[in-house]
Amino acid sequence: MDNSVRYAIGAPGIKWGATEKAEWLAQTTIKRSYLEQVVSKVHALSEKFDIEQYGALSYAPEKYPLFAIKTHHWDKTKPTVLITGGIHGYETSGVHGALAFLALKAEQYSADFNILVVPCVSPWGYETINRWNPNTVDPNRSFYANSPAEESAALMQLVQAQQTHFLMHLDLHETTDSDESEFRPALAARDGKEYIPDIVPDGFYGVGDSENPQDAFQKAIIDSVRHVTHIAPADSAGNIIGEPITQEGVINYPLKALGLCASVTDAEYTSTTEVYPDSPRVTDDECNMAQVAAIVGALEYLKQHQ
């Protein structure tokens, strides 16, 4: 898509109002089942972990309960870590990578860490394969006081309810071809701005915090993931998604200033993982396992440096 192509909704240069937002919502459809594909897997973990429902989305509470999974026997002397997925519901391996970590790896780290996992923060987005919620709000730009996204507000309340310091937070994401074909053009149209195309990175990359980058921690994640999938190269300008790389496969964002999920705990160690599921070089399972490898690499680093 180039700059001359109009998004199907709205007029160029004019922010969306209620009419355009309603038109956008009307063209969304349910494409998969959160209850069947996600909640069933959560309940299947109930013998190994503590399952907590921390809320439900008002759009359809019976369809969109919100679940957190915790390792047994929390110990205040152990560091606590948070894993989140599905902030953007369309980013599938974030959800199923978090669930795979619970099924395959979490128990072996429970002696060293209290582990809290929220596999799908945005279940409506999961079902409609969408970045936004029904109100055209991006939950991953909404982690601040009086959040306009109930998905974000519910997660912030869950974090506060733990009444503990978090050492680490990994937020599991994907960068997809649809970012350029749909979601960034929609964002530009919604905000009345010009859409400027970018290049979708071919491979995995991570996003650290520009205010607290933790370069060695980010490298440990990259080195773990490279055993599962390829690492995204920088473009000809030395950037990934418009940001300069700080090392192979890593860029930094000001997490708190942008209202990003990875800022929600004020943890010392944070990273947003970005898997590329549209590469012909990967399978869905490899994408899920790349997320698992990112978590394992992060936890192994913490075990060695705490």
Automatic annotation (TrEMBL):
GO terms for molecular function: hydrolase activity, acting on ester bonds; metallocarboxypeptidase activity; zinc ion binding. Gene3D superfamilies: Zn peptidases. Keywords: Carboxypeptidase, Hydrolase, Metal-binding, Protease, Zinc. Belongs to the peptidase M14 family. It comes from the Bacteria. It comes from Photobacterium aquimaris. Residues 30-306 form the Peptidase M14 domain. This is Zinc carboxypeptidase. GO terms for biological process: proteolysis. Its cofactor is Zn(2+).
